[in-house]
Amino acid sequence: LGFGVAGAIEQAGESAAQAVKLAELLEHPPSLAHALSDAAITWQIAGDRAASDDMARRTVELADKYSLVHHRVIGRFLSGWTQAAAANAPAGLTLMESVFAHVSAIAALRLYFTALLAEASAWAGRVEAALALLDQAVALTPRAPRGESGRDLAPTHGRDLVAVQSGQHAPGLLRFHEPLVNVPRIGQRLLDRLAGDLVKHEPPRGYLG
Predict the structure, then answer these.
(1) Region 28-54: what's the mean pLDDT?
(2) Which of 140, 96, 101 is nearest to 118 (CA)?
């Protein structure tokens, strides 16, 4: 995940593959489910929908076999996102929404999953719902430490961010800010990019590029 956030896609893919291979050698289903779900997230960040879908489906299959509820909902949520990214937004969004309450309870990934649901909502033409999710994501975001100038670096509201990126607010408010924790940062970057797409009336993209 760290390589993916840093934009080192090749290393991210290699690391994800190695983690899955090691978990398979251990013959420990929970470890393999964790490796597969992390790989699905990694490939989603990288923009490889097919690879993310493959890892998500394998996660669900394994989770169903061994009753691993935590990983089942992650796999189903990401499978929904890959459907939405493949021009089947309504069906994908329905699947994502069916498990969102469960995945959003995972604190470390809450912002990330909220961002993905907002993106899929926008793909399905539900822009107001996407904006509401942006606001919800901000409400869930930890307050960041103050910057060197002493000003508060806490994020603006999602709707304000849309206005910011359309040039209606000061440049200093252009980005969300938060503690430098990698996984929440994935969601922050996706939210930033999604807001910009909505401002430009462009179809939201399915990757963080």
Answers:
(1) 94
(2) 96
